[in-house]
Amino acid sequence: MAAPSELPFRPWDPAFVADPYPAYAELRERGRVLYHEPGDQWLVPHHADVAALLRDRRLGRTYLHRFSHEEFGRTPPPPEQEPFHTLNDHGMLDLEPPDHPRIRRLVSKAFTPRTVERLAPYIERLAGELVDRLVASGGGDLLAEVAEPLPVAVIAEMLGIPEPDRPRLRPWSAAICGMYELDPPPETAARAVRASEEFSGYLRALIAARRADPGDDLISGLIAAHDRDDRLTEQEMVSTAALLLNAGHEATVNATVNGWWALFRNPEQLAALRADHTLVPSAVEELLRYDTPLQLFERWVLDEVEIDGTVLPRGAEIALLFGSANHDPKAFRAPGRLDLARRDNPHISFSAGLHYCIGAPLARIELAASLRALLRRAPALAPAAEPERKPNFVIRGLRALDVVV
Q: Domain 4-404 - what CATH class?
């Protein structure tokens, strides 16, 4: 096993954040599991291992369903972060059975392929309207004008968020998601706590309003499940709504701008896509693989596991490197090449197993809709400047993507 100081995993280094993929190749050469002392984590860089561990029930997103912090050898979060952890820890993403499947079953009714397909005409129309406005302006920030408002509007529509309130959602989401980075600084935590308090208060007020005047939206459905069968607590309703809004924004927004920046840097692939729009479905999958919007997913070791002769004890933390797994040459032919016609594409950008992204069908429709709208209505779309990448490592994206049409 390589000495910790020699590992090329440096999520605090802007050069690494700008392009982590060469470092991932070196990690894969070093081994199947590597201890990263600065983060006190075991890094798993290979596709086969990441895919298997996502399905391994000896690992968990939380340990609190089985152990206290003290029993697990971990320090409880500081009391001042309580609003964030209350909101975060009652959402599906950070729950394990029996709570996770109970909540997921209720929410999944809103995300069946048939239900999501019914949204497709609305999504296509909205994507077209957003692109038309971008074209009428002669260009602008693709992130702010198209990538962001589309998924925000769609998930807000599903949940029943009133239109005048929707501009508040993205700032709350961005502040909360800052806590998913590795070792977030105190100012990031403080912003996440404030956003959690404000977002929770807003959702509780909205739940009260929907209880008095139900609609056919998802929040009204969650209320019905709570009131009829006591299958959800109010906190679980709040946390579920917040999770769906946050996840619905972050992944799709970043996949859109990461994808277009990849297309601009691979002009022959962009030309092929412009010439043949039937490539859009496979292009969506390839763009999700090529520059993965979620680079890392963490798991706790609940029961001892062994990887390639290395025993990971209970209480250890594993960092599953999605970005590395999606560039593993054992799983993908020529992984460093953008190939929009790639057919064999087992990327894990939506995770796998129990925590497979419930919104994956919706995200695919949104990404395809915005891609088609831009190809048809802005056929000469081009970058206006080199974009600045966000300093985040885990949630990978751009600050903006200025374009001309």
A: mainly alpha
